[in-house]
């Protein structure tokens, strides 16, 4: 490994989709500044893997590590511990690392039901002998190992201490560029980093605050499924049109991309500053616009949201107060135990 | 006690991939195992979600090709509601998809696959990456590659609302259309894209097909597998990325049938192995005979090459010329040499750019009739598109409220899990003999075996310098590491 006076930079993906890497690549020419300011020591997307080289580095020798992806397997957690040990600043980068993201919805059901469906239940699977992947398998030529899957998907900070959180699915490229500027300036003594534990690369308010749509603070009488809306008004608040939009609870920072495209805010930037439980805040926001005091009518209005768990915790279940269903924690559905 | 070689790329297909090579007592390859050590369970946890959420949920299967999942999900959701989307909505989706294809294929050719050819497979490792390509072909071309990525993403954002994980396709069509101003901008970028695609084909022809050593490598047996080919075609049996029927041709090039999305279960089945989390799709009508070539083996490929093999041509004029040139140069249909996938990808690049312009100049593209409210009771639906890395199938069942009750997915690269495993095996067998290890060359040639497929476990590797990161550990009979080979960037 070359010795280099420049601060060291790393980026790693655990259980993820690769979109965070694409978002970083989309900073385009700014990448050259990363190259200029840092020695990139570990970044599987761009260079040789070198896990052993990371292991060989002194502890705390990597100045900045952007870590994306959730904790789905034992291997993911091992890498989280390694990167924590080697890094001065560990950033939970993107929704998976911060709050579990969409794959965190796996915490609504048991790992057993996931495996049963994937390897037996799915209609195209032909598996008469009911073969399942094994963590240790004696092939004729030798032993093969697969990492164990955790029963509950975890966020990065549920496994190791995290210095900063950078939300978004994926984080917007302009926010990534701004964070890189901030860190580079701090390294040159020209600025200070926020206190440990802060959310960076995002705003302090809600998506509604950066959404250009008009809000008349009207009350709503029903929730509409988006496909049933005759014509989406391009200028009026989506929630006021009855379309469930997660803007009121979601942190600003994306520029209200989805509402600008007449699509609901799905909630990928996570809870707004100070919100402990995203879903609770969103339920409260929705409840406040329902224009009824009649329990029966309220029931009908809420029927317009057919999947409350998915609506209110789409990106946040793994980080919510609930975190996971009972089935997920024990790893089995009740049904399975009875068998 | 056998020797073992581990290749741990730490890259992805819904996670990370690992290759184990076992040697026998004589030092010959006994077997290879290509393992996928992760399962995220989308098929399970999408149950209970409203079907209109599926296009945004399944984006997160892959952040490199979310456009493919978004389209397949939207088509499946349309089918669940038995709704025919307006013509303008269909064109908007296909326009977005063509621009996405253009970007995706460009970055693969220049950053990932191209360096092996432009610089040569035995060029110094430190140069065999996109930076080496820039040095060889010049900064001007590098600027064009960056421009190609930017243009593609601009169109995706204009129509899809976001650069990564688009959000505008819903059951019945789109949430929004485009303005005339946007259309003009998209058209201008499309003309540029056609020029760029033609330039890329010329570059490939000059550098690869003008070099006898490369021709020998491409046409040689080391990278050849005689399997079935599949790919989506339109009503004239021309390649189509967004819609049509899936054409299946046998290893001799004979079309054995075509299937519509709803019939996929008659054609495709998946096998489970105990040593990997990923399943192996195969042709159900032929059956699983193991990791073997031939007409009796249900193994198939789903790549740019297989799409060309499975079709009768391209639907745009310039791409059709290149299609004809391709098969003439390679000795007629079907082509089985896996390295020809790179060339096939460039033929598709030109088609994507031409289609982009066709759609951008379609008078209907700025129509405000981009959504039809579904009126039928939701039940069940299949959506199929051609992802860059293979036919992508989404199948959803819902209750009468349109809430998902069951999901089945057969994902792009997954189609190629068996042939990639076979390619790795063949490369290892042809390169490792009697314990003799060809060090760096071995790594790169094994890499080339699966890089041609543009596999999704490396698909994020698309866009930057670098090759598939590989580490290879060689163990002696007592399980001790005797040598470590690494591929540096």
Characterize the structure shown.
- The complex is a heterodimer of chains A (339) and B (489).
- By secondary structure, chain A is α/β, with parallel strands linked by helices.
- Helix content of chain A is 32%, strand content 14%.
- Chain A is globular, with a radius of gyration of 22 Å.
- The termini of chain A are far apart.
- Chain A has 14 helices and ten strands.
- Among the domains of chain A are: 8-100 and 155-187, NADH:ubiquinone oxidoreductase-like, 20kDa subunit (Rossmann fold, 3-Layer(aba) Sandwich); 207-302, no CATH class.
- Chain A has helices spanning 19-25, 30-37, 51-56, 74-86, 95-99, 111-121, 173-187, 207-210, 257-260, 278-289, 295-302, 308-312, 326-330, 334-338; strands at residues 8-13, 39-42, 62-68, 71-73, 87-93, 125-126, 136-139, 142-145, 149-154, 164-166.
- Among the domains of chain B are: 3-38 and 435-486, no CATH class; 84-224 and 337-364, Orthogonal Bundle (Cytochrome-c3 Hydrogenase, chain B).
- Chain B is built from 15 helices and 16 strands.
- A five-stranded antiparallel sheet of chain B has the order 3-2-1-15-16, covered by helices on one side. Chain B has a four-stranded mixed sheet with strand order 8-7-6-11, with helices on one face.
- At the A-B interface, helix 1, helix 6, strand 6 and helix 9 of A face strand 3, helix 1, helix 6 and strand 9 of B.
- Strand 6 (125-126) of chain A pairs parallel with strand 9 (268-271) of chain B.
What does this entry show, briefly?
The complex is a heterodimer of chains A (339) and B (489). With 339 residues, chain A is an alpha/beta fold.
Order of helices and strands of chain A: EHHEHEEHEHHEEEEEHHHHHHHH
Query: In percent terms, what proportion of residues of chain B is strand?
Result: 15-25%
Which CATH class of the domain at 84-224 and 337-364 in chain B? Answer: Mainly Alpha
Largest sheet of chain A: 5 strands, parallel
Based on DSSP secondary structure assignment, what is the total number of beta strands of chain A?
10
- Report the radius of gyration of chain A as a whole number of Å: 22 Å
* Low-confidence segments of chain A: none
| CATH architecture level-2 label of the domain at 84-224 and 337-364 in chain B | Orthogonal Bundle
The biggest beta sheet of chain B is recorded as: 5 strands, antiparallel
Poorly predicted runs of 5 or more residues of chain B: 9-15, 457-471, 475-482, 485-489
**Please, what is the average pLDDT of chain B?**
85
Gap between N and C termini of chain B: 34 Å
Work out the helix count of chain B.
15
